[in-house]
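Worked problem 6 (solution included).
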Amino acid sequence: MRYFITLIMICAFVLAKGEDDASYVQISIPVACMREEGSHSSQLVSQTILGTPMKVLAKEGEWWALKGPDDYEGYVNISGFVPMPTERLEAWKNSRRLMVNSIREAVVLVDSLTAGEGRNVLSSLVNGSIVEGVIRAGSEFVKITLPDGRMGYIETSGVAPLDSMPKLDMEELIDKCYSLMDTPYLWGGCSTKSMDCSGLVRLLFLNYGLLLPRDACDQFKTGTEVHEDLRPGDLMFFSTTPEGAITHVALYDNDNRYIHCSGKVKVSGMSENDPDFSHRYYRGARRVFDSPECVGIKSIKSHSWYF
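Solution. The predicted structure is:
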C-alpha cells in the first residue's frame, strides 16, 4: 500500500511539473480512448495506444484536446498520458525504441526471472505499442521502459526496433488479419482488443510503420485506384446506398473474398449468392504501397514526431 501511494504521488508530481510546458504528451496506458468531447459519456471517436506522441491543442481540466500523428483529434483523459515537454520529446526521438509486433497482447513482467504471471505482471501491451529498450542478441527477454518511467521485461520475440520497420508484405499482413478473427467490433476502436472497420486496416499497416488516415472515407483517398485484378491487401470500399458516402472498408484476400470487421473480424464473399455476403454497395478499391509517393500515407520513419 505504501508503495502504491508513493507511486501515485510521484505520477502526480510529474504531471503537475510538466503540465505547464507540455506542448506534447505521450500515451502511457495500453489503449487510450479519444472522445468527441471531454467526458467519459461522450462518443468514442478513436483510440490511441501506448507510446504514441500526441500534440496538445487545449487543456480542459482532466480532459485534454489532443491531435495524433495522423492528424486525428479528440479528447483524452489525463489518466491516459504523461506530459512530454520539448526536451523530453527530443530525447525520446533519439532513444533506442521498440515496437510491439506481436499481433496478440504482449505481457510486461516486473521480473523476468520469476516464474508465472499473476502479481509479476506490470502491464500488457497491444500490437503497435512503443517502448524504450535495446534487444540483446540471444536474450529471451528485453528490459524496457514505459512512458511513465516504469521498467519491466518483455519477450524479445514480441518486439522489433522502431528504426528498422519491415517492408510492407501484403501476404503477411493478411495472415496477421486472420490472427484477429472473431475480435469484436467497437465503434471508434483502433486496437487489437476491439476495433471498427477502418481501425482494423489502420492497425495492420502500422506494423510496417505506415500511418493511414483514421476513417474509411479518408482511406478511400489513399494509394492508387484499382479497377480489376485485385491483390491480397488491397483496400475495398463500400457504402450503404449506391451513391452514398463511403462507410466501410475491407481487405481483399483472394477468390472474391475479403476480410473485414463488421460485428466482428470475419471473412465475406463478394457474390450475392455467397452465404456470408455482406449487403453493402461496392464502390471500388485502392492499393497502398510502401513508398513516399503513396498518396495519403505517412511513414513513421519520416514523421518529425518520431524521428
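Discussion: The radius of gyration is 20 Å.
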